[in-house]
Design brief:
Shape: globular
Structural class: mainly alpha
Strand content: under 5%
Distance between the termini: 28 Å
Number of strands: 0
Order of helices and strands: HHHHHHH
Largest sheet: none
Number of helices: 7
Helix content: over 70%
Radius of gyration: 14 Å
Length: about 130
């Protein structure tokens, strides 16, 4: 599986946590990953580790997003854009294997696929301020 595809699955895993109710994130992640077909052990472990890491840094990530978003706080953002931003900020600040520009570009691509018309510009604007 390529990095973009892995990133898309991680985005979906993190997004699902917003709507999981009382189900623990770890259980949600396992359910999501187990429904995927033909996933190597390496890809499975990578997606699980990264999704967990984003949640572990959630407070710091949201603080960074709030600092760099003018007039928008994480509590008011739509869940798709917020999830994309959270994943990108994690990659920019804590994932040494992903260059910042790649994290931003991939976030914009996710916004093009999953957000509304203004999502890509919104995501790009906030991440651009963080670089």
């Amino acid at each position: 599986m390529g990095r973009s595809e892995l990133r898309e699955h991680i985005f979906k895993m993190i997004f699902g946590v917003e709507f999981s109710g009382d189900t623990p994130a770890a259980e949600q992640f396992e359910l999501y990953l187990n429904q995927l077909e033909q996933v190597s052990e390496k890809d499975y472990a990578y997606m699980l580790q990264k999704a967990r890491a984003v949640l572990e840094h959630l407070e710091e990530i949201d603080s960074l997003i709030n600092t760099h978003s003018s007039g928008w706080k994480t509590s008011r953002m739509n869940k798709v854009d917020l999830t994309i931003l959270r994943l990108a900020v994690y990659e920019m600040k804590w994932d040494e294997d992903i260059p910042e520009k790649v994290a931003v570009n991939e976030a914009v691509e996710l916004a093009k696929r999953f957000s509304g018309d203004e999502g890509p510009a919104f995501v790009n604007g906030i991440l651009g301020k963080m670089m």
